[in-house]
Design a protein that fits this description.
The complex is a heterodimer. In chain A, 18% of the residues lie in helices and 14% in strands. Chain A is of the alpha+beta class. In chain A, the strands form 2 sheets. A 3-stranded antiparallel sheet of chain A has the order 2-3-5. Chain A has a two-stranded antiparallel ribbon with strand order 1-4. The longest helix of chain A is centred in the first third of the chain and has 12 residues. By secondary structure, chain B is mostly helical. Chain B has one domain. Chain B has a two-stranded antiparallel ribbon with strand order 1-2. Chain B starts with a helix and ends with a helix. The chains are: A alpha+beta, B mainly alpha. At the A-B interface, helix 1 of A face helix 10 of B. The structure holds iron/sulfur cluster (SF4) (2 copies). The site of one iron/sulfur cluster has 13 residues of chain A, from helix 2. One iron/sulfur cluster binds next to helix 2 of chain A.
Chain lengths: 171, 317
């Protein structure tokens, strides 16, 4: 009985506590830089698309809301022909970002993507691509990957030795 | 002729005021709950969110008014009406201020108790007519709850009746000129408060509704304005019990300086606020616990209170 009265009193005192509500549209809350919101596709420091269309994000996605089609340009560099994210299904888990080997797909601290028409929540590659490198400014997958693409031959990657000439090997 | 017109006007005014207070309580409750939970509550629609009530009502009107095909149709439709009817009927015998009453019956208090016993039929019938497991459980619990509080509810008030020597509301208030009955009848007040919370099926005794266990209990299947009737019926019930407490134990309209009706409203709103504080603070017991307390603790206490009061009243006379 006493504990009930004590509870009532303590709850009553909460009337004089500060409010925890953030009055959202008037007052924006601080979101951490790694907040998981709207997804973007980033670019290399030199402006090329980072995504190599490896499908890993589409495989990792628990709700299957990423769909893409791989293709290659004439120099052998892979890129997605289309890249589509259905944000009406995305649960913003961030698994795609975890899975991506090239830091291409990234989540951003923007959550204001409401639409009146559900169809408008399907974002195409043009909507997703941004002009900068996102959270990883200096990283470029093609500069460290040991594959040969246009403008970069074998052994020209960073931290890579030129290929050894087997026939010229002298003891 | 003039008498009749005055009566009709009083009826309409009381109906208007009571229903508006009940509707306004939706806003008051949400704001107060928010206040005690460190939030703001509805504050967007209109000044201080006051128009939230209008928005909610409009929304309710546009909801589909659905009767499930498996339900017992007529009982299902009738049930929400009963709760409104019985609670509103109880208001006819309340005396709000000298001369402001619809019918100051000499058995006023008995009438209120009778109406409140009828009111629970609405919940039980609504639950059983829905033909839904959760609603049925809610209805069963309502019946069990009624069995446990109804007994000591009446008895807890008999002390007041003994001291005032009348069942009439105005006589009871007049008998408190010297001292509010809450002082000599403190036990009766506490018992009636508990029974009153159970009667209105408000937290912590919203056992028939129990959102966290039974979806929405007896009104799981209700939608649209039928649900609204249960909802408003509950708030009118809160107003009724608060009005009763202030009339029976806190001297109704008696008070210095301010006009009587203002005193009455102040006291009533104090208890309405207290009801909401109860909701904000206390968890819900199991219904067998409520029955346990009702029969093994509250009923003996109410009987003892009645006996002692009776003895003292006899001795003093
Ligand atoms: S955040 Fe999760 S749900 Fe959304 S696209 Fe990435 S993997 Fe799929
Ligand atoms: S965004 Fe990343 S994981 Fe997805 S296909 Fe492109 S490179 Fe692969």
């Amino acid at each position: 009985m006493l504990s009930v009265i004590r509870t009532l009193w303590h709850i009553f005192l909460h009337a004089f506590h500060p409010r925890v509500t953030v009055q959202y549209p008037d007052e924006k809350p601080y979101l951490a830089p790694r907040y998981r919101g709207r997804i973007i596709l980033s670019r290399d420091p030199d402006g090329g698309e980072r995504c190599v269309a490896c499908y890993l994000c589409a495989v990792a996605c628990p709700v299957d809301c990423i769909s893409l089609q791989a293709t290659e340009d004439e120099t052998g560099r892979r890129y997605p022909e289309f890249f589509r994210i259905n944000f009406s299904r995305c649960i913003f888990c961030g698994y795609c970002e975890e899975a991506c080997p090239t830091y291409a797909i990234q989540l951003t601290p923007d959550f204001e993507i409401c639409e009146y028409n559900r169809q408008n929540l399907v974002y195409e590659k043009e909507d997703l691509l941004i002009s900068g490198p996102g959270k990883y400014p200096d990283y470029s997958f093609w500069r460290v990957a040991g594959v040969e693409i246009g403008g970069k031959g074998k052994g020209e990657s960073e931290r890579e030795d030129p290929p050894a000439d087997l026939r010229s090997l002298m003891p | 002729m003039r008498e009749t017109i005055i009566h009709i006007v009083t009826v309409l005014v009381v109906l208007f005021v009571v229903l508006n207070i009940a509707a306004g309580l939706i806003w008051v409750e949400r704001r107060l709950l928010a206040l005690w939970q460190d939030r703001y509550g509805p504050n967007r629609v209109g000044p201080f969110g006051l128009l939230q009530v209008a928005a909610d009502t409009i929304k309710l009107f546009f909801k589909e008014d659905w009767v499930p095909p498996f339900a017992d149709k007529w009982v299902f439709i009738l049930a929400p009406g009963i709760v409104m009817l019985t609670v509103l009927m109880s208001f006819t015998v309340l005396t709000f201020a000298p001369g402001i009453a619809i019918a100051d019956l000499n058995i006023g208090l008995l009438f209120v108790l009778a109406m409140s016993s009828l009111g629970v039929y609405s919940v039980v019938l609504g639950g059983w007519a829905s033909d839904n497991k959760y609603a049925l459980l809610g209805g069963l619990r309502a019946a069990a709850q009624m069995l446990s509080y109804e007994v000591f509810m009446g008895l807890s008030l008999m002390g007041v009746v003994l001291m005032a020597g009348s069942f009439s509301m105005s006589a009871i208030v007049e008998a408190q000129r010297k001292m509010w009955f809450v002082v000599p009848q403190f036990l009766g007040f506490v018992l009636f408060l508990i029974a009153g919370v159970a009667e209105t099926r408000r937290l912590p005794f919203d056992i028939p509704e129990a959102e966290s266990e039974l979806v929405a209990g007896f009104h799981s299947e209700y939608s649209g304005m039928k649900f609204g009737m249960f909802f408003v019926g509950e708030y009118v019930g809160v107003v009724l019990i608060s009005a009763l407490i202030s009339i029976l134990f806190f001297g109704g309209w008696l008070g210095p300086v301010l006009p009587p009706i203002v005193w009455f409203l102040i006291k009533m709103f104090f208890f309405i606020g207290f009801f909401i504080l109860l909701r904000a603070a206390l968890p819900r017991p199991r219904f067998d616990q409520l029955m346990d307390w009702g029969w093994k603790l509250m009923l003996p206490l109410a009987l003892a209170n009645l006996l002692v009061t009776g003895a003292i009243v006899l001795a003093v006379r």
